[in-house]
Amino acid sequence: MTIKEKVSVPCEIRQGTSPVILGFPHTGTEVPPEIADRLNDNGRMLADTDWHIHELYDGLLDNVTTVRATFHRYVIDANRDPAGVSLYPGQNTTGLVPETDFDGKAIWKNGQGPNEADIAARLRDFHAPYHAALAAEIERVRAIHGVAILYDCHSIRSHIPFLFEGKLPDFNIGTDMGKTCDSAIEQATLTVVEATEGYDSVLNGRFKGGWTTRHYGRPDTGVHAIQMELAQSTHLQTEAPPFAYDAAKADRLRVHLKNILVRIERIAPDLKR
To answer: Per-residue DSSP letters for 219-266?
Structure first.
C-alpha cells in the first residue's frame, strides 16, 4: 500500500435508516505531506492499518449508516481518548499519536516525533471532526428509532508479541465487560461467533473495546456500542505487505458478519427506553 500524502476530508459519512451504525476509525491511509515527511521508512509502511475492513463489511446490512475516518492512525488515533489516557494501563499499547508501531518499533524520523502543539492541532483537525460526525449520526439514528447501536469495526494481525502472547482469536468482541451495550446485543453476537466452524472467538479478552466503544456506549440513554476486532488472517492473503485482500476468505467470513449485524438490528426495537 502506497501512503496517500493528503487528507481530502477527515471522514466519509453514508447515512442510512437502520438503527445500526458502523464505525471505521482505522481504515484510512491518508497522511498530510507535512506529517508524511516526518515518518521513517517503517512508519511509511502504515502496517497498523485495519486493512480492507470497510470493504469487508460493505453491503452486509441494508440502510446501515457508516462513518469512516480517512486519515491514518499515525496522524492521530481516532479510537483513543483525546486526553491521552491509556485504554489498558500496565499493558503495551499505542497512544493517541503513536510513537511506535504495534511491534514497538519507531515510526518517526529521529527528533521528528509529534510534540504537544502537533497533537493539539491533530485533535482539532482530525480526531474532533471524526467524532463530531459519529456523534451526530448516533443522535440522528436515535431520533428515528429511540435507540442506536454502534458497531465499531476493527482488525489486527493475529500475532503481535509486543501486544499479546500467542495467537489472537479470530473474533474478538469488546463491550468493556458488558458496560457498553445491552446483554442481548452481546449475547446475539457471541451466539453467532461460537457457532461458526473453523473460527475461534473471545468476549472481552485482550481487546475489551476502545475509547469509541467506551465513550458512546451508554445503554441507559438508548445508545449501545460493541467492538469487533477481527484477526487479519481471516480475510487477508498474508498479514504482511502488501496486505492483500483474500476474496475467498472474506466471502466465508462475510456470511457470519452479516448474521451478526442482522441479529443485532432485529434486537433494536426491544431496547427502547
So the answer is: GGGTEEEEEEEEEGGGTBS-SSTT--B-HHHHHHHHHHHHHHHHHHHH
For residue 270, give the amino acid letter.
D
User: What are 178-230's pLDDT values in tens digits?
Assistant: 999 999 999 999 999 999 999 999 999 989 999 999 999 999 999 999 999 99
Cβ atoms of 50 and 235 within 8 Å: the answer is: no
| Structural domains of the chain sorted by starting position, each given as residue range(s) with its CATH number in brackets | 11-29+48-79+121-268 (3.40.630.40)
Q: Where are the beta strands (DSSP E) in the chain?
A: 11-14, 20-24, 65-69, 148-156, 171-174, 201-203, 223-231
Q: Is the pTM of this model over 0.85?
A: yes
242: preceding bond cis by omega (within 30 degrees): yes
